[in-house]
Design a protein that fits this description.
The chain contains 18 helices and three strands. By secondary structure, it is mostly helical. It folds into three domains: 33 residues; 220 residues, Citrate Synthase, domain 1 (Orthogonal Bundle); 117 residues, Orthogonal Bundle (Cytochrome p450-Terp, domain 2). The structure holds coenzyme A (COA). InterPro entries: Citrate_synth-like_lrg_a-sub, Citrate_synth-like_sm_a-sub, Citrate_synthase, Citrate_synthase_bac-typ, Citrate_synthase_sf.
């Protein structure tokens, strides 16, 4: 590998010093000019930047004049996520396609509409001729999110209406990407395993009669086999990750980039870049790595004292990545609970039983209980802290034998439906480029001729 793609030379270090010296802004100026850092107000609430009908997150209730924290609730197009999940599980259907229809078209599909929509996705679930050989197999990356983004950008070249942002065309592109994301992710992973680890290469063609969740497992496993429970739990994971309001980092990216009038492929590549971050979709990997570290450092997994001690070490930057965080706990919006984590937990217990991993399940439950107490003692918590969706998702994926490299792409496979709905909502309603303000706090200087500097 060419050293300029990895080596930090003394020249770069010297330039870094200069960069740092002239890039640091006095922290007090942010309060002086009342900057809403992170687009949040002083209480941590998001600044209102848009309206949406696609989903709603509830974490507070009004008690007279007072805003009081409540159990979290999530509504897709006004329908409670708990009822959606209960509904398709009771009726023994896979839910992701139904939820994608709901998010994009704004209503629950009838039997016939769902069948037609699933057939449309199946028809779109194919890549251009030789795309796997010419694009995915060439120069594979160890990061599947980058592979995914690269593939998305390259698909632009295969689309004769790539830059057309009329609604029918953007809808077609959104559905196409929703259909092919599982292929791009899984094949990207297979190429990586083949070229980086020397594993045998499997490229299984998806089957039109299978749901998105089933196809992921079908394409990933060398023998294409999976249990019904595995497919249903992965489907629930996709449903719970499909959408989370307009303000989450990657969906807001969708709005920002769409508002410039650019094409769908550029918008989705930008949103993928956002989702990859460990403060956003990348957190599920951190949770699993944190638990691996805990298992190595705590000898008795049932001891509240030992587990609390480790959690306190995490907060005091003495354990794991020394970031002072207990991953999978807390949320910018939810207070007493994240409904997605609660729904997930019910299925996790059944899967742990099937997989013989109840000891770990009990450890997760213990950490969930103790972490909330320890964080409340060690940090200033106004609104309550509870497990978020990432707390259990990594554990579920490990029980499904999904490789760590695919944890965040699974999130992307789900969230493309929310992004597609928001891109259409932005194009239909906005027409104004998103352009917030930045105040310059630099003093003016004279231009000095180069010989006099
Ligand atoms: C998601 C997260 C960034 C939200 O932070 P937030 O918006 O500041 O949330 P709160 O207002 O409830 O936090 C209050 C305080 O508790 C701290 N806190 C909250 N969750 C915490 C956690 N899991 N570990 C350590 N400290 C935490 C916050 O950093 C904040 O401290 P500060 O006042 O010193 O800045 C935060 O909970 C976190 O970092 N969690 C771990 C990472 C994670 O799981 N991310 C996935 C989210 S879906």
């Amino acid at each position: 590998m060419d050293s300029k793609y990895s080596e930090i030379t003394p020249e770069i270090l010297a330039l870094t010093d200069l960069c740092l010296k002239n890039s640091s802004i006095d922290a007090e100026l942010y309060s002086k000019y009342k900057v809403n850092r992170g687009l949040r107000d002083v209480n941590g609430n998001g600044v209102l930047t848009g309206l949406t009908e696609i989903s709603e997150i509830q974490s507070f209730q009004m008690n007279g004049e007072d805003k009081v924290p409540c159990e979290g609730r999530l509504f897709y197009r006004g329908v409670d996520i708990e009822d959606i999940v209960d509904g398709f599980i009771k009726e023994k259907r896979f839910g992701f396609e139904e939820v994608t229809y709901l998010l994009i078209f704004g209503k629950l599909p009838t039997d016939q509409q769902l069948a037609d929509f699933s057939s449309l996705l199946a028809k779109y679930r194919t890549l251009p001729t030789s795309f796997v050989r010419d694009i995915i197999m060439k120069a594979p990356s160890s990061d599947m999110m980058n592979t995914l983004a690269r593939s998305v950008l390259t698909l632009h070249a295969y689309d004769t209406k790539a830059n057309d942002i009329s609604i029918p065309n953007v809808l077609r592109q959104g559905l196409l990407l929703t259909a092919v994301f599982p292929l791009l992710s899984v094949y990207g992973y297979q190429a990586y395993k083949h070229y980086f680890a020397g594993d045998s290469l499997f490229i299984h063609t998806p089957r039109p009669e299978l749901s998105t969740a089933e196809n992921i497992l079908y394409m990933l496993r060398p023998d294409c086999r999976y249990t019904e429970l595995e497919a249903r739990i992965l489907d629930v994971a996709l449903v719970l990750h499909a959408e989370h309001g307009g303000g989450n980092n990657s969906t807001f990216t969708t709005h920002v980039v769409s508002s410039s009038g650019t094409d769908t492929y550029s918008v989705v590549a930008a949103s993928l870049g956002s989702l990859k971050g460990p403060k956003h979709g990348g957190a599920n990997i951190k949770v699993v790595q944190m638990f691996d570290d805990l298992k190595k450092n705590v000898s008795d997994w049932t001891s509240e004292e030992q587990v609390s001690g480790y959690l306190r070490d995490l907060l005091n930057k003495k354990a794991f990545d020394k970031a002072g965080l207990i991953y999978g706990m807390g949320h910018a919006v939810y207070s007493l609970s994240d409904p997605r984590a609660n729904i997930f937990k019910r299925f996790v217990q059944r899967l742990s039983e099937e997989k013989g991993r109840m000891e770990e399940f009990r450890l997760y439950s213990l950490v969930e209980k103790l972490a909330a107490e320890v964080i409340a003692e060690e940090r200033k918590i106004y609104k309550g802290v509870s497990a978020n969706i990432d707390f259990y998702s990594g554990f579920v994926y490990s029980m499904l034998d999904l490789p760590l490299e695919l944890y965040t792409p699974i999130f992307a496979i789900a969230r493309i439906s929310g992004w597609s709905a928001h891109r259409i909502e932005e194009l239909v309603n906005a027409g104004k480029i998103i352009r917030p303000a930045y105040k310059s706090v630099a003093p003016r200087k004279e231009y000095v001729a180069i010989k006099d500097r």
